[in-house]
Amino acid sequence: MTEARLLVRIGAEGGYLAVYGGPLSTPGSRFRVAVVDQTPTFLNDDEAGPASRKDSGWLASWEEAMSALGRYPWPHLSVLYVHESVRAEVWKAVQDYAATSPSRISSSSMQRWRTHCSENSVSPSEEEWDGLS
Fold this sequence. Notes:
The chain has one domain (5-123). The chain is an alpha+beta fold. 30% of the residues lie in helices and 23% in strands.
């Protein structure tokens, strides 16, 4: 497999969710979902601690990655980055979530997802995001 790259980053209060993986078009590509909570770093010195990170481990398919991401209310959160190679798949996943979730996704959230998943979307590069991690 080629080196995993950032495919999706979603901002959450105090941290973020991210999906990493190889190209969907490459047979054998694997994916992983990471959850980073930086809240402990925001506390007073006597209560502070390191950021916590949960990782799904390697998943065998895009569908498994979306299922792992589905443990969180990700379409309700703030989309920060969608790699151009998965924009259509992410938009479909957002629409599927919206169709099956009991809680309605706000129109502003849907618009942000639509914008990030469009062909004309301009997002920070993967390298720019790596510098922010």
